[in-house]
Amino acid sequence: MVSSVSAFFLGLTASFFMGYELALIMLAAIPVLGIAVTVFFSLLQAGVLEIMKGYAQSAGYAEQALHAIKVVQTYGNEELE
User: Which of 2, 32, 37, 70 is least enclosed by beta carbons within 10 angstroms?
Assistant: First the structure.
């Protein structure tokens, strides 16, 4: 993270020395990009939470089925079932 942050600031400093117009455009675009990234990650997090709820529910069903299989096998009723 330190490397990425330092590369960003060094790149920004170099861009001010090379051509300040493009650096000013970059500075104006940074808040817009930050907002876009925040919205994207909040939507992504909501989707992941929904998927995890589905996995938890299906894991519960699988656990119930495996428990029922164990009960049938324990009492020796495989042929009957």
Answer: 2
